[in-house]
Batch of 4 targets.
Target 1
Amino acid sequence: PSTLWGRQQRNLMRRLRFWTNLLLFTLPLLLLLIGATNYIRHIANFLTLGKRLGYLVSVIATEQAGQAVTVGNVAIRGDFWNRDAENSIVLSHITLSDKQKPQSLLGRAEEVTLDYKLNQFFDDPATLRPVLNQITVRNPELNLSRDAKGQLNLLPMLQNLLGGKPKSKRTGVSRVVVEGGTLNYKDAKLPH
């Protein structure tokens, strides 16, 4: 009888040891896996929250252009772990309007795609390799007008963007593609 009781105790202790070890080692790994998955999901959600990024890009573009720029959505696509992979930033629902007269639309574009490779950002500027491979503008509409004094409405913005000397000989983009656009021109100097 005592050996039977001893054998049952040993079996019980083995089972208890097995379940204790399983819980002590598996539970923390499971919790770590759940936490890592939630963290990666959080980072991915941040990168795909285009409206938040669109607002940030709008603020920066408005400051650079000197005109009111609105970007509706931003999507970042590509492989961020491989420096040689083709990546793109897609800006959609872009509008450009006069800062003094926000109701005056200067232009709009359905979508602008910036194609790049990560290693181009880290290159030595002496290599003269462009920062962006290509900019593709889809379905833009530009409202160009000249007032009675001969001043173009986009001239102040272009002077603001292009003013000053470039800091290096490295170009910003190697190719610009415009797909299906419209140019509306109004000239106050010409007789109607």
Note: The chain has a mean pLDDT of 84.
Target 2
Amino acid sequence: RGSCVSETFAQVFTQLLGWLGSFVEWIFKWVPVYEIVTYNEVAVKYPRGGRPKRLGPGVHWYCRNLSRIAKHFACRFTQTVKPICVETKDGVPVMIGMVITAHIKDIVKYEVENLNADDNMDEVAQGALRDVVMEYSWEDLRKNTRDGTRFGNVLSNRIGKAVERFGVEVESARPNDQVRLDLLRGAVRIFR
């Protein structure tokens, strides 16, 4: 009988300490804390029940129970767009990818209006790349991607328009690899 009472007391005491720890943690969430947003960062503050707000560089105070802050770098970044398979205007199958250089222009659009901005931008950029490649023949595509300026300008403009709703401004878009798939299939047959 004595051991049964001591086990029960130990269980009650453990539960009491657990509850006390949770209560102290809850109390500390009401203590204001600060977040430092550096010069090359932008942030979004999500107040409970309010509209998200853009935060620039500086020290920002907030209460963790009432709001949260999400930070992103505002400097230039590159994003590699996964290669896609597409046919040119003259029916030549091509696999082509690209690299986008951009920077965040509107942090609220980038952070709030997208579930995953990077993946969404990648898919939209792939669609724009497909549209551009389908306007060129294989020879025009090879010639323009070697030169880079005309094709790169067309890509930059098209991709810039496609991803501007993500709060991003595209500085440049350049193809990073291209392979003519029908020739590649022939080479694979030779080596088998």
Note: The chain has six helices and eight strands.
Target 3
Amino acid sequence: VSLLWKFWGNLKPSLYFLLLITPVSMFFRSYSPILIKNIFDELAKVENHNKADVAYIKENLVLFSIFGVVSLIFYIYIQSLRGITNYKLENYFRLNIFKYIIKLGQSFFQKFETGDLTTRLIDDVSEKKLAWSACSGIFRTYEAIIVIIYCIYFMFSLSPILTIVTLIPLTTLLSVYIVVSKKTIEYSKRTQE
């Protein structure tokens, strides 16, 4: 974390903004299904020969529309900021690595072929690997944790028993994901060597 913080030093405003805006964005995305539920619950009253509150339905439709637009704006902005930050980190990593390599002297360049060095600098530092992991990878995990917390909270507020029943397969899925993820990382390392 301390090494990563060094690279994030110039990008702290982006980091803080992403830390603050991500939970707000995820709230809008996570709460929208509650609004849909409210609309359908109100419409179900008609099926039971009761009068539906049209004003309540309209209010929830307007809120759903507003939440959808706000969520879309946040999503586009957050993804764009992450992408820009990935590229800035990639550039910063490469410049620092170049500075370091240049100081190593001629014996270093005789020991390693230029193609190997270039491949490492292009492939390993690229926006899809190190730079991506240093920004988007961290914030996707952060976003996923926040969505899970919001969803569990909203589910629990609707039905605690159903929430518990739902969490049982979710833990199994998480276990499978961890095993598959480790295997994927091992395979990726082997192919890089």
Note: The chain is about 90% helix and 0% strand.
Target 4
Amino acid sequence: ESHQNFPDSSDKKEKDGKPQNYMIVDIGFNTMDIAFIVNGKIIRITAHEEKGFIQLAEVMKARILAEHNRSISLKEAANIIDSGFYMLRGEKFLKDKLIAKMKQEYTAGLMYYLEKHYGEHIDKMPKLYFVGGGAYVIDEKYSKNIKVVEDAEYNERRTVEWLERCSVPLKYLNSSFCNFIGNDKVKQTCMK
């Protein structure tokens, strides 16, 4: 994938203590969407199928089959990751150590993928902000430039608040980013 039109952001400083150049990585169940912010403006958005939380759910599903000889759905696997345990016939099987390891491996794999596709740009970005329903599985210890936004699941109020905290002026949001957010009320706000 060519990034020839990507501006050089290496010499831009923080404004009012907030970075002007960073990436937003939105991890959904199935997809991962990335927005590049340069000089405080969204300049590019990319979408990546099968890179979301589903990867962890598939691993958990396979582990439950291997360890307990039970086939479960991806939704059940996601619930195990959320709760930290698997219930079978009234017996509780703790999975927190496995889940911690899975999160570390997912973060490492995701960062490898991002590095492979956008490494030259990540080098110039002081922060990678992880948002979305799947952001909580990111291991912030992986790198100092990783930040998981607290309560990062999008809703109309949190989205606008989060964008403002990250110094993204709403006037710069284009219809692509509003579609990326996926909320009609936020889209209307963005389009004003």
Note: Helices lie at 54-68, 74-83, 96-122, 156-165, 175-181, 184-191.
